[in-house]
Write a structure and sequence with these properties.
The chain is α+β, with helices and mostly antiparallel strands. The protein has 13 helices and 38 strands. The radius of gyration is 25 Å and the shape is globular. One of its GO terms (biological process) is proteolysis.
């Protein structure tokens, strides 16, 4: 698909790529909370949430929930306006925040030091490499001291810069502001942009005149954030979110008309499927994508005839996914159809794209996962992963001759984007490793010349030779080899004395890259071994690696992570009881499970927006992501076996009377993916049952959602807080 300037904030260094759904159990009539506004004295003692018995019965099994009251009945309204949160719930969350602040007071100076370190590694006046499109080149850049980016353009061959959007001005006096997709019209006269001002991921879409810098009257609330222009420069398509935050309708909007006049061109009736909209790299087709985690369907609109009805490419078939690109009179389709779990590429006539006309172009190879396909006028580019390492393969369409771009390090990360242009020989890609800062290259697909366009600067200094990166293999319970990527200082003693930060995710087929992180250096420079466990549930070793870590095989995700920790201890990179485990979102669920199963392996747990109330969440089909999540976790409403399997690992449902490592749980009040009440209920349950005095902290961002603070420096303060917790627990504070 063609590029849109999507402000992804690479400086976040977040591994949270995809979240889970917000769900919870039923409530009994409201009772008055025991928690009141905290005094200074009360902040020295951990808060205790009142127990209000609630119960639900499924498959003849009664599930009790003492803390279900923390789920606001008006959660949809709270997503839009956090001020509508019930007073008793707010009081409890604020009491926990006050206790956390008090418990971490002794790290305040350390937090400030860490923040300055993290900030010092960011080039404050940074900018992206301009992306050419016709007469202009588009980019994002930051000014010194600015929290948010500016979207700019210059004449293609150089000249005076025009600021299209300044997110710092737009964010002025707002507690939260996130700029999302920014997409210019094909004639370069208009810019569609959207923003979220609550952290709830309800985006308001606006249209700006590029010449005057003024927004037009167009203002469309409650969209998913992305837009796609038709080729007339006056029509755009967007996805609307319903009251339960589900992207279910695609609308066509004509610039200058009212929202009420917009035409719904597609509506998805099945709540288990989400809807997206994009454009082929050729610019010829608007593509409406319907998908869950294992099935997809695509409808196409001719971008030159935007009022035409969408045409179905191929009807959805459970368990089959496909993604379409276009060139000339042919569609190129990336799919797992017909027993190709690691995907293959097929072609079909543009006027007859149904499955009956699919012909293999790049055959399926087990263990070689094709991650993406990008098509140009004369070349096809595919990003693949094999043996847990990525690679870029380029095919010349005239004769089918292929070549691979080679890299030398033991573990690394690659990224390749389509850019704006179709008729070009230049491919732009990025490369980094745990020790090598990100480098952006332009690669001529004909001459095979590689031109370095940008290398990530670390203003405070970085010498790759001071660090070591390695890839080791841990043996899982069933004999599988689990890759673990390591980063540590070359002088770090590997005799079991070093503390370790072990990161894991392991869901949705998302693979965690072995990429450069300036944030990790603050731990490594203080003697930590920084490790990433590439566990099942991701696609690090192909689709089978994912399939072996979901639904009825989900336990493999957890045992793989434990095996990784045990291996690092056995090989003396660290020791049992010296590991700080970290994970966010679905990775936060992993944190909850391993804390229950092997608490003595870990000194501490950092669980960011943790999906820890899995069973209650999957039982509540009113919450945004629950129906689309059933292919990932199983449907405990319809399937008793799925109910019992999830119940056996769901973190909240398996908290027991035992000693637990120190735990920091972080949530966001307006998070639509992992709702604030999941970490709140988890911490309340742990406080009730754990048998030791190890630190247990809940920190809820009352002004943000799933991704935390929106400004680049505000986010670094959150990282500094997490690292201060890790250092405190490791005795390094």
């Amino acid at each position: 698909m063609r590029a849109v300037i999507s402000v992804n904030f690479e400086w976040l260094n977040l591994a949270i790529t995809k979240g889970t759904g917000p769900k919870a159990g039923c409530l009994l009539p409201s009772m008055q909370s025991v928690v009141t506004s905290p005094s200074m004295e009360k902040t020295k003692m951990p808060p205790r949430a009142e127990k209000r018995l609630s119960a639900a019965v499924h498959h003849g099994i009664t599930k009790s929930d003492d803390y279900a009251w923390l789920r606001a009945d008006n959660w949809q309204e709270v997503m839009r306006d956090p001020g509508l949160l019930a007073a008793d719930i707010r009081s409890y969350l604020e009491a926990e925040n006050a206790y956390t602040d008090t418990a971490m007071t002794d790290t305040q100076a350390l937090q400030e030091t860490l923040f300055e370190e993290l900030r010092g590694r960011i080039k404050q006046d940074d900018s992206s490499v301009p992306a050419p499109d016709g007469p202009y080149a588009y980019a994002t850049r930051y000014e010194e001291g600015a929290q948010h980016p500016m979207v700019v353009r210059t004449p293609r061959e150089g000249g005076e810069e025009t600021v299209l959007l300044d997110a710092n001005e737009l964010a002025r006096d707002k507690a939260y502001f996130r700029l999302a997709g920014v997409d210019h019209s094909t004639d370069h006269k208009l810019v569609a942009w959207s923003s979220d001002e609550a952290g709830s991921e309800f985006f308001t879409l606006r249209v700006r005149d590029a010449a005057t810098g003024k927004d037009l009257s167009d203002e469309i609330p409650e969209t998913s954030g992305g837009t796609v222009w038709a080729n007339d420069g006056a029509t755009l398509f967007y996805v609307w979110l319903d009251a339960n935050h589900r992207p279910c309708k695609v609308f066509r909007h004509t610039v200058g008309t009212s929202r009420e006049a917009d035409v719904c061109v597609y509506e998805e009736k099945d709540p288990g499927f989400f809807v997206g909209v994009g454009k082929t790299q050729s610019g010829k087709y608007i593509a409406i994508d319907i998908h869950d985690h294992e099935t997809s369907e695509c409808w196409l609109i001719d971008a030159d005839e935007p009022t035409g009805a969408p045409k179905l490419a191929a009807p959805r078939k459970t368990g089959e996914e496909y993604d379409i690109e276009h060139r000339g009179d042919t569609f190129y389709i990336l799919t797992n159809a017909n027993g190709a779990p690691d995907f293959k590429i097929v072609t079909a006539p543009a006027d007859a794209p149904g499955r009956e006309n699919w012909n293999d172009l790049v055959a399926h190879t087990p263990g070689r996962l094709i991650l993406s396909l990008t098509l140009y006028e004369n070349h096809m580019v595919r990003l693949e992963r094999e043996n847990s390492l990525p690679r870029i393969v380029i095919s010349r369409l005239a004769d089918g001759i292929e070549h691979e771009i080679a890299f030398g390090e033991e573990a690394y990360s690659l990224g390749a984007g389509g850019g704006y242009e179709f008729d070009t020989t230049l491919l732009r890609f990025s490369y980094s490793s745990m020790t090598t800062p990100t480098r952006v290259y332009d690669y001529d697909m004909d001459t095979r010349e590689r031109t370095l366009r940008k290398e990530q600067e670390v203003p405070s200094g970085h010498n790759p030779d001071d660090y070591v990166t390695r890839r080791v293999m841990a043996t899982a319970d069933d004999g599988e080899k689990v890759p673990v990527t390591l980063l540590y200082g070359k002088d770090t003693p590997l005799n079991g004395t070093a503390p370790c930060l072990l990161y894991g995710y392991g869901s949705y087929g998302i693979s965690i890259p072995a990429s450069f992180s300036t944030n990790a250096l603050s731990l490594v420079d203080r003697g930590f071994v920084y490790a990433v466990a590439h566990i099942r549930g991701g696609k690090d070793k192909g689709f089978a690696w994912y399939a072996d870590g979901r639904r009825e095989r989900k336990l493999n995700t957890f045992t793989d992570f434990i095996a990784a920790g045990e291996h690092l201890a056995k090989e003396r990179f660290t020791a049992r009881g010296k590991i700080i485990a970290q994970g966010g979102s679905a990775g936060g669920m992993l944190m909850g499970v391993v804390a229950n199963r092997t608490p003595d392996l870990f000194a501490g747990i950092i669980a960011e927006v943790p999906f820890v109330d899995v069973l209650s969440t999957m039982l509540d089909d009113t919450l945004p992501l629950t129906p689309p999540e059933w292919p990932e976790w199983g449907n405990p409403i319809a399937d008793e076996t799925a109910y019992r399997y999830i119940a056996a690992y769901s973190p909240i449902d398996n908290v027991t009377a035992q000693d637990y490592p120190a735990i920091l749980a972080v949530g966001g009040l307006t998070d639509p993916r992992v709702t604030y009440w999941e970490p709140a209920k988890w911490v309340a349950t742990l406080r009730e049952r754990k048998t030791n005095d190890n630190l247990l902290l809940l920190k809820t961002n009352m002004d943000a959602g799933h991704g935390g603070a929106s400004g680049r420096f505000d986010r670094l303060k959150e990282v500094a807080f997490n690292w201060a917790f890790a250092l405190k627990i490791a005795g390094k504070a």
